[in-house]
């Protein structure tokens, strides 16, 4: 065989190999989809104080594991203790004021009873004076004097009744539903709540991250001071849309992590995300903007799916942002064999890169 014939044979073999590889790539992309665009995410909780004050003690260190409700740092509680004591005094004063109003109401009730008795007496005297006047037994001057006393008694009763009504309105309801007590009790509870906020605790189990806080720092309400990387984790993978044509929730998958080369883990699809940021329209009052591209073939759109490992504890041990490769398995036995071989080869390649 001449050198030209050998070269022609090598070219034919290379072309044949390229065609076979191309056909396999096209078929695998539809029925054996795999993606290296997978990552482990841990929810990150920003720790933010709910009151302002000077930090007097930091009880954790950077990268330390903390449990839910564990105290992370404390803020000087002195002003909050004083506010709680003042609110408690205000509540006690409200109770005492209600007692004073109760006593005043009783005194007004007695005064009103006496005024009504006086009015009854003046009414009888007025009615008797009318009959005596008709009989000319008393003078008109005496009659007018009796009538004036009667009208004065009626006015006195009306004034005391108004005073009684005003006192009852000032007192409000009797019992715990009294408005003044409710205001004072609400202020007291708010002061106690602010006092409890001086102890800042973890809301989730996780690991302290980016701790720059030191004693003496002034903490502002609503300003994050550190972060907690939660223990629970989520594995997400981004596939081209057409690669997910034959995949459903519950479909089997295989996962290999860059940090664990040579190891393949069983998994399944737990959910598909509803959309991506490119699919969100903003009602900002402007006209619609169009996507423009000079490329003949545009970039394929990717869709995000969530993967659930059979070994659920593995993800919690991996750091947030850890990279992974996800291989989806078809329903057929032969397809699963090729898919498993494909992900095994990728896992071995992780020893190199």
Query: Strand fraction band?
Result: 15-25%
Instruction: Specify the helix fraction band.
Output: 40-55%
Spans with pLDDT under 50 lasting ≥5 residues? none
- Described by the principal axes of the CA atoms, the overall outline is elongated
The sequence of SSEs as H and E is: HEEEEEHHHEEEEEEEEHEH
Beta-strand segment tally: 14
Main beta sheet, described?
A: 6 strands, antiparallel, barrel
Q: What is the radius of gyration?
A: 43 Å
* Tally of separate helices: 6
Mean pLDDT: 86
SSE class: alpha+beta
Q: How far apart, in Å, are the first and last alpha carbons? A: 41 Å
Strand order of the largest sheet: 1-10-13-12-11-14
Description:
This protein has 353 residues and is α+β, with helices and mostly antiparallel strands. The chain has a 6-stranded antiparallel β-barrel with strand order 1-10-13-12-11-14. It is elongated, with a radius of gyration of 43 Å.
